[in-house]
Amino acid sequence: MAVTNKRFSLWVLAWPIFIELFLQFLLGAADTLMVSRISDQAVAVVGFSNQLFQALTTLFITVASGAGILIAQKLGSRKSEEARTIAIMAVSVSGIIGMGLSVVLYTMPGQIASWLKLPEHLMPLAETYISIVGGGMVLISLMAALSTAIRNTGNTKGPMYTAIGMNIVHVVLNYAFIFGAFGFPEWGLKGVAISTVICRLLAVMVLFVMFMHAFERTIRVRDLAKFSRRLFGDVLRIGWPLGVNMSCWVFTQLLIYTFLAMLGTNELAARTYLNTLESFCFMLGYSIALAVQIQIAHLFGAGRIKEAYGIAYRAMWIGLAVVTVNAMLIFLFGKQLLGLFTQNHEIIALGVSLLGLNLLLQPGKMVNMALGNALNAVGDTRFTMWSSLVSMWLIAMALAYWVGIELGWGLLGIYACMILDEYIRGTLALLRWRGRKFLLRAEQQNEREAQAMQGQMSSTGTGALAK
Predict the structure, then answer these.
(1) What is the pLDDT of residues 137-152, one digit of tens each?
(2) How far apart are CA 19 and CA 130, in angstroms?
(3) CA angle 99, 102, 104 (to 5 degrees)
(4) SS (H, E, C) 379-434
(5) How does it sit in the bilayer (predicted)?
(6) What CA dihedral angle connects 25, 26, 27 and 32, to 10 degrees?
(7) Sign of torsion, CA 228 231 233 236?
(8) Rg of the chain over all Cα atoms, to the nearest angstrom
(9) What is the pLDDT of residues 250-265, one digit of tens each?
């Protein structure tokens, strides 16, 4: 048990996740920096397209996220075979969904960009980027399912090492394909798209090998056809509210990008650059939130309810300290950092004007992430779903449109509504966690099971004496 405890400790889980996220951040920053050498229009297209891809990932993240929580819970309750079956189903189903999305994005990039009101002069670049990167959506789905399954067994280092290799290859290929280095043609934005797909393909291959050996019994290719209706029902029970929750976030973000597209290319580019800087702010906090979700799910499955309750607050306070310091660093050096990406003074001015608001945004986001993930870990996913549905659509979307577009407050108004949304959801999650609804229910269930077991032992002992 001591080994298991050490493997599922907050720090052991969190630091590889942080390294992985940090490398993903570097990957995104390198992408943005290299694409900015093409044009600010290309940056706007990449930012816009990535929001579209994130929105579509909700169609398979439902399965991956629900499976991840159940894998940790099953391992905590020593049901390793059920955890293995759940992981196999998550990979198979996610791959099927991802393949369908790949077909749609590869064949209809122009129509999709047009539906989302992308400015006409950006359409040629968007068609190229969406068709290539979107055509590889099946790779994104498999990466999500594989890395989630591996991570929730307590092995957070595996995905981290994969991210390191992926980043190195991606930066080298970006340089080669964008600028025509090493004898390659100068492909520009098309080169970025091709580089992205190649790196994801390599990552899937590495993660699949790790996945095969992630459980006590090795997973074979023929096992991918394995399916349990009962266990898949459990995955969907936890996963579908997570999927709705995630879809609320990404679709509201996509709509916000659509609002920004209405404001102009500069606003769209400024938000893309600032999004890159913001990723650095909450990255370590998010890694802590992901780690505590795995840890709480494992403790909850093992019946260690009081430990599960307290660890959420510890993670929240650690995360708040970290993101506040990071946000302050971005505030102090933001202008210089934005200057690395663009020389457009209007875009830099727009970005700098939001850095002060970012100091308010990040603490609210951290509370929301830590306690929202804690609720998800114990299966209280419907509450986070409903709070997201109400707050995101009314505040982050409807109010943002009214304030930013109708009242003419622009980017600042939209950003203020994003802050309000994070604090409302964070406060609701805090109140729900303090109520301990699912934790108290689990404690009562454990007490009933313990009493039943004592009763069986008592009756067995009495029967033996009678004989």
Answers:
(1) 999 999 989 998 998 8
(2) 28
(3) 115
(4) CCHHHHHHHHHHHHHHHHHHHHHHHHHHCCCHHHHHHHHHHHHHHHHHHHHHHHHH
(5) Multi-pass membrane protein
(6) 90
(7) negative
(8) 23
(9) 778 778 877 877 787 7
HSE-up (13 A, CA, CB side) for residue 310: 4
- Both tokens of residue 252? 């509201």
Number of H helices, E strands in the chain: 17, 0
Residues with Cβ within 8 Å of 17's Cβ and at least 6 positions away in sequence, in order, are 151, 156, 159, 160, 287, 290, 291
Report how far apart, in Å, the C-alpha atoms of 82 and of each of 76, 78, 79, 87, 158 are. Answer: 12, 9, 6, 9, 22
Domain boundaries, the chain: 12-444
Give, in degrees to the nearest 5, the angle at Cα 34 between 38 and 247. 100
Distances (CA, A) of 384 to 60, 176, 291, 305: 18, 44, 18, 20
Q: Is residue 9 within 8 Å of 274, Cβ to Cβ?
A: no
Q: Which residues contact 330 (CB under 8 A, 6 or more apart)?
A: 277, 278, 280, 281, 337, 355, 358
Residue 32 has pLDDT above 70, yes or no: no
pTM for this entry: 0.73
Tell which residue, 297, 310, 303, 309, has the closest CA to residue 447: 303
Rounded distance, CA 77 to CA 80, Å?
8
In Å, how far are 280, 328, 444 from 411, measured between CA atoms? 21, 21, 50
Residue at token pair 């159940």: 70
Query: Which single residue is written with the structure tokens 């595996």?
Result: 158
